[in-house]
Write a structure and sequence with these properties.
Layout lengths: L2 H7 L4 E4 L11 E6 L4 E9 L7 E8 L2 E6 L1 H12 L7 E5 L8 H5 L3 E2 L6 E7 L9 E8 L7 E10 L5 E6 L7 E8 L4 E8 L2 E7 H9 L11 E3 L7 H4 L1 E2 L6 E7 L5 E10 L5 H4 L1
Antiparallel strand pairs: 1-9, 2-8, 3-6, 3-7, 3-9, 4-5, 4-8, 10-18, 11-17, 12-15, 12-16, 12-18, 13-14, 13-17
Length: 282
Protein backbone atom coordinates (compact mmCIF):
# COMPACT_ATOMS: atom_id res chain seq x y z
CA UNK A 1 0.00 0.00 0.00
CA UNK A 2 1.39 3.42 -0.94
CA UNK A 3 0.81 6.80 0.68
CA UNK A 4 -1.94 7.74 -1.77
CA UNK A 5 -3.94 4.61 -0.92
CA UNK A 6 -3.50 5.31 2.79
CA UNK A 7 -4.56 8.93 2.30
CA UNK A 8 -7.68 7.90 0.36
CA UNK A 9 -8.72 4.87 2.40
CA UNK A 10 -7.24 5.58 5.84
CA UNK A 11 -9.01 6.44 9.06
CA UNK A 12 -9.99 10.10 8.80
CA UNK A 13 -13.02 11.10 10.87
CA UNK A 14 -14.81 13.92 9.06
CA UNK A 15 -16.90 16.60 10.82
CA UNK A 16 -20.49 16.99 9.61
CA UNK A 17 -23.50 18.98 10.79
CA UNK A 18 -26.54 16.93 11.73
CA UNK A 19 -30.20 17.72 11.16
CA UNK A 20 -32.02 20.29 13.27
CA UNK A 21 -33.55 19.46 16.62
CA UNK A 22 -37.28 19.92 17.14
CA UNK A 23 -38.95 20.71 20.45
CA UNK A 24 -36.08 22.69 22.00
CA UNK A 25 -37.19 24.59 25.11
CA UNK A 26 -37.02 24.91 28.86
CA UNK A 27 -38.35 21.76 30.56
CA UNK A 28 -38.75 20.19 27.11
CA UNK A 29 -37.44 17.03 25.44
CA UNK A 30 -35.89 17.92 22.08
CA UNK A 31 -35.39 15.28 19.39
CA UNK A 32 -33.26 14.87 16.30
CA UNK A 33 -33.57 12.21 13.60
CA UNK A 34 -30.07 11.35 12.39
CA UNK A 35 -29.65 10.27 8.78
CA UNK A 36 -28.19 6.73 9.03
CA UNK A 37 -25.58 5.01 6.92
CA UNK A 38 -22.32 6.49 8.18
CA UNK A 39 -20.06 5.20 10.93
CA UNK A 40 -20.32 7.58 13.87
CA UNK A 41 -17.20 8.16 15.94
CA UNK A 42 -18.79 10.81 18.12
CA UNK A 43 -21.77 13.15 18.36
CA UNK A 44 -21.36 16.63 19.81
CA UNK A 45 -24.24 18.67 21.21
CA UNK A 46 -23.75 22.45 21.25
CA UNK A 47 -26.01 24.58 23.45
CA UNK A 48 -26.05 28.00 25.06
CA UNK A 49 -26.89 26.17 28.30
CA UNK A 50 -23.52 25.83 30.01
CA UNK A 51 -24.86 24.73 33.41
CA UNK A 52 -24.48 20.96 33.17
CA UNK A 53 -27.26 20.40 35.69
CA UNK A 54 -29.74 21.94 33.23
CA UNK A 55 -29.05 19.20 30.68
CA UNK A 56 -31.25 16.74 32.53
CA UNK A 57 -30.94 13.81 30.14
CA UNK A 58 -29.20 12.86 26.91
CA UNK A 59 -30.42 9.77 25.07
CA UNK A 60 -29.49 8.01 21.86
CA UNK A 61 -31.84 5.37 20.45
CA UNK A 62 -30.85 2.86 17.79
CA UNK A 63 -33.86 1.12 16.24
CA UNK A 64 -35.94 1.89 19.31
CA UNK A 65 -33.35 0.60 21.79
CA UNK A 66 -31.65 3.10 24.10
CA UNK A 67 -27.88 2.87 23.82
CA UNK A 68 -27.02 6.14 25.59
CA UNK A 69 -28.86 7.41 28.67
CA UNK A 70 -26.97 9.91 30.78
CA UNK A 71 -26.92 13.54 31.92
CA UNK A 72 -25.01 16.64 30.94
CA UNK A 73 -23.02 16.25 34.15
CA UNK A 74 -22.09 12.69 33.20
CA UNK A 75 -20.84 13.74 29.78
CA UNK A 76 -19.04 16.92 30.80
CA UNK A 77 -17.89 16.51 34.37
CA UNK A 78 -17.15 12.79 34.39
CA UNK A 79 -16.41 11.31 30.95
CA UNK A 80 -14.88 14.39 29.32
CA UNK A 81 -12.98 15.35 32.46
CA UNK A 82 -11.62 11.84 33.00
CA UNK A 83 -10.38 11.39 29.43
CA UNK A 84 -9.01 14.97 29.29
CA UNK A 85 -10.92 15.75 26.08
CA UNK A 86 -11.39 19.41 26.88
CA UNK A 87 -14.23 21.23 25.12
CA UNK A 88 -15.68 24.67 25.70
CA UNK A 89 -18.60 25.14 28.06
CA UNK A 90 -21.90 24.25 26.40
CA UNK A 91 -20.39 21.47 24.28
CA UNK A 92 -21.41 17.95 25.30
CA UNK A 93 -19.68 15.08 23.54
CA UNK A 94 -20.87 11.49 23.17
CA UNK A 95 -17.74 9.56 22.23
CA UNK A 96 -18.36 6.17 20.68
CA UNK A 97 -14.73 5.69 19.68
CA UNK A 98 -11.70 6.03 21.98
CA UNK A 99 -9.65 9.05 20.83
CA UNK A 100 -7.14 8.51 23.65
CA UNK A 101 -6.35 4.91 22.58
CA UNK A 102 -2.86 3.68 21.71
CA UNK A 103 -3.71 1.66 18.58
CA UNK A 104 -6.06 2.14 15.65
CA UNK A 105 -8.14 -0.95 16.47
CA UNK A 106 -8.45 0.22 20.07
CA UNK A 107 -9.46 3.69 18.93
CA UNK A 108 -12.19 2.34 16.68
CA UNK A 109 -13.59 -0.13 19.20
CA UNK A 110 -17.03 1.22 19.99
CA UNK A 111 -17.54 3.23 16.81
CA UNK A 112 -21.24 3.22 15.97
CA UNK A 113 -21.85 1.62 12.58
CA UNK A 114 -25.25 2.55 11.20
CA UNK A 115 -26.94 0.80 8.31
CA UNK A 116 -29.27 2.45 5.77
CA UNK A 117 -32.25 0.67 7.30
CA UNK A 118 -31.51 1.91 10.84
CA UNK A 119 -33.40 4.53 12.82
CA UNK A 120 -31.09 6.70 14.93
CA UNK A 121 -32.58 9.34 17.22
CA UNK A 122 -30.98 11.74 19.70
CA UNK A 123 -33.01 13.21 22.56
CA UNK A 124 -31.98 16.05 24.88
CA UNK A 125 -34.14 16.92 27.88
CA UNK A 126 -33.63 20.39 29.35
CA UNK A 127 -34.33 21.32 32.93
CA UNK A 128 -35.70 24.68 33.96
CA UNK A 129 -33.47 27.18 32.16
CA UNK A 130 -35.28 30.18 33.61
CA UNK A 131 -35.24 33.29 31.45
CA UNK A 132 -32.68 31.76 29.08
CA UNK A 133 -34.25 30.30 25.94
CA UNK A 134 -32.11 27.25 25.13
CA UNK A 135 -30.52 26.70 21.75
CA UNK A 136 -29.25 23.37 20.50
CA UNK A 137 -27.52 21.97 17.47
CA UNK A 138 -25.54 18.81 16.77
CA UNK A 139 -22.53 17.76 14.76
CA UNK A 140 -20.63 14.51 14.43
CA UNK A 141 -17.36 12.95 13.41
CA UNK A 142 -18.07 10.24 10.84
CA UNK A 143 -16.17 7.72 8.76
CA UNK A 144 -17.42 5.78 5.72
CA UNK A 145 -20.25 3.30 5.87
CA UNK A 146 -19.59 -0.35 6.68
CA UNK A 147 -21.64 -3.37 5.58
CA UNK A 148 -21.69 -5.07 8.99
CA UNK A 149 -22.10 -3.81 12.56
CA UNK A 150 -19.89 -5.77 14.96
CA UNK A 151 -20.33 -3.79 18.18
CA UNK A 152 -22.89 -1.60 19.89
CA UNK A 153 -21.53 0.86 22.48
CA UNK A 154 -23.69 1.77 25.46
CA UNK A 155 -23.60 4.41 28.19
CA UNK A 156 -26.07 4.31 31.07
CA UNK A 157 -26.20 4.37 34.85
CA UNK A 158 -27.24 2.09 37.67
CA UNK A 159 -27.74 2.81 41.36
CA UNK A 160 -26.33 0.73 44.18
CA UNK A 161 -27.06 0.97 47.89
CA UNK A 162 -24.38 -0.20 50.31
CA UNK A 163 -25.91 -1.73 53.39
CA UNK A 164 -22.90 -1.55 55.71
CA UNK A 165 -19.83 0.56 56.23
CA UNK A 166 -17.02 -1.61 54.91
CA UNK A 167 -17.34 -4.30 52.23
CA UNK A 168 -20.47 -4.55 50.07
CA UNK A 169 -21.34 -6.81 47.15
CA UNK A 170 -22.68 -6.12 43.65
CA UNK A 171 -23.31 -8.99 41.26
CA UNK A 172 -23.04 -7.98 37.59
CA UNK A 173 -26.44 -8.78 36.04
CA UNK A 174 -25.29 -9.87 32.58
CA UNK A 175 -22.64 -12.58 32.18
CA UNK A 176 -21.85 -13.18 28.53
CA UNK A 177 -18.93 -13.73 26.19
CA UNK A 178 -20.32 -10.95 23.99
CA UNK A 179 -20.79 -8.32 26.73
CA UNK A 180 -17.76 -6.25 27.78
CA UNK A 181 -17.22 -3.48 30.29
CA UNK A 182 -15.27 -0.48 29.04
CA UNK A 183 -15.38 1.51 32.28
CA UNK A 184 -17.39 1.87 35.47
CA UNK A 185 -17.45 5.20 37.29
CA UNK A 186 -18.58 5.04 40.92
CA UNK A 187 -19.76 8.61 41.60
CA UNK A 188 -18.96 8.74 45.30
CA UNK A 189 -16.03 9.77 47.41
CA UNK A 190 -17.02 7.09 49.91
CA UNK A 191 -15.69 4.17 47.81
CA UNK A 192 -12.33 3.30 49.33
CA UNK A 193 -11.55 -0.04 47.66
CA UNK A 194 -12.78 -2.25 44.83
CA UNK A 195 -12.26 -5.97 44.25
CA UNK A 196 -13.60 -7.94 41.30
CA UNK A 197 -14.11 -11.71 41.32
CA UNK A 198 -14.87 -13.89 38.32
CA UNK A 199 -16.39 -16.90 40.04
CA UNK A 200 -13.84 -17.60 42.81
CA UNK A 201 -10.88 -15.94 41.13
CA UNK A 202 -9.91 -12.41 42.13
CA UNK A 203 -9.16 -10.51 38.90
CA UNK A 204 -8.83 -6.96 40.25
CA UNK A 205 -8.05 -5.23 43.53
CA UNK A 206 -7.15 -1.61 44.23
CA UNK A 207 -7.70 1.01 46.88
CA UNK A 208 -9.03 4.39 45.79
CA UNK A 209 -5.63 5.96 46.44
CA UNK A 210 -3.70 3.33 44.47
CA UNK A 211 -6.25 3.37 41.65
CA UNK A 212 -5.98 7.13 41.22
CA UNK A 213 -2.19 6.79 41.01
CA UNK A 214 -2.47 4.02 38.41
CA UNK A 215 -4.92 5.94 36.24
CA UNK A 216 -3.14 9.28 36.40
CA UNK A 217 0.49 8.31 35.88
CA UNK A 218 0.45 8.12 32.08
CA UNK A 219 -1.06 11.55 31.60
CA UNK A 220 -3.85 10.30 29.32
CA UNK A 221 -6.48 10.24 32.05
CA UNK A 222 -7.32 12.59 34.91
CA UNK A 223 -9.18 10.84 37.74
CA UNK A 224 -12.12 12.97 38.84
CA UNK A 225 -12.38 13.94 42.50
CA UNK A 226 -14.82 11.79 44.48
CA UNK A 227 -15.13 9.24 41.66
CA UNK A 228 -13.71 5.70 41.64
CA UNK A 229 -12.97 4.82 38.01
CA UNK A 230 -12.76 1.12 37.11
CA UNK A 231 -10.88 1.32 33.81
CA UNK A 232 -9.34 -2.00 32.71
CA UNK A 233 -7.93 -0.45 29.51
CA UNK A 234 -6.50 2.72 31.02
CA UNK A 235 -3.06 2.21 29.44
CA UNK A 236 -4.65 2.69 26.01
CA UNK A 237 -5.17 -0.81 24.62
CA UNK A 238 -8.96 -0.76 24.55
CA UNK A 239 -9.31 -3.64 22.09
CA UNK A 240 -7.29 -6.01 24.25
CA UNK A 241 -8.36 -4.44 27.53
CA UNK A 242 -12.13 -4.64 27.20
CA UNK A 243 -13.27 -6.45 30.36
CA UNK A 244 -15.23 -9.65 29.63
CA UNK A 245 -18.25 -10.33 31.81
CA UNK A 246 -18.32 -14.08 31.15
CA UNK A 247 -18.49 -16.22 34.29
CA UNK A 248 -19.87 -19.60 35.26
CA UNK A 249 -21.41 -18.55 38.57
CA UNK A 250 -20.93 -14.86 39.19
CA UNK A 251 -19.04 -11.72 38.28
CA UNK A 252 -18.87 -9.94 41.63
CA UNK A 253 -17.82 -6.39 42.44
CA UNK A 254 -16.93 -6.06 46.11
CA UNK A 255 -16.63 -2.41 47.07
CA UNK A 256 -15.71 -0.89 50.42
CA UNK A 257 -17.35 2.34 51.57
CA UNK A 258 -16.50 4.67 54.42
CA UNK A 259 -20.07 5.93 54.85
CA UNK A 260 -23.58 4.88 53.84
CA UNK A 261 -25.57 6.45 51.04
CA UNK A 262 -26.73 5.53 47.54
CA UNK A 263 -24.12 5.49 44.80
CA UNK A 264 -24.69 6.18 41.12
CA UNK A 265 -22.50 4.11 38.81
CA UNK A 266 -21.98 5.43 35.29
CA UNK A 267 -21.51 2.42 33.00
CA UNK A 268 -19.75 2.17 29.63
CA UNK A 269 -20.09 -1.16 27.84
CA UNK A 270 -19.62 -2.83 24.48
CA UNK A 271 -21.91 -5.56 23.13
CA UNK A 272 -20.61 -7.72 20.29
CA UNK A 273 -23.44 -8.42 17.86
CA UNK A 274 -21.60 -10.19 15.04
CA UNK A 275 -18.54 -12.41 14.76
CA UNK A 276 -15.44 -10.58 13.59
CA UNK A 277 -13.91 -11.81 10.35
CA UNK A 278 -10.16 -11.82 9.78
CA UNK A 279 -10.42 -9.04 7.21
CA UNK A 280 -12.50 -6.86 9.51
CA UNK A 281 -10.01 -7.18 12.35
CA UNK A 282 -7.04 -6.30 10.14
Amino acid sequence: MNLLEIAVNGFKPTPVELNNFVGVGSNQRASLQVTPGATFQMIELISNITDVTKIAKVEVELNGNTIVNCTGYDLKSVLEAYTKRSRAAGRYVINFFNPEASTLNSMRLGELVTLPSDTLTVYVTFGDTGATVPTLRARALVTPSQPVRYFIPKVYSINIDPSVVGENHMSWPLRSGSHFIRRLHFLSGNVSKLQVYRDDLKVYQASAVDNAQDLGEGGDNAPVANVFHFDPAHIGFHWEGAFPTIAQKELAFKYDVTALGGIKVLVETIDQVNAITTSAAA
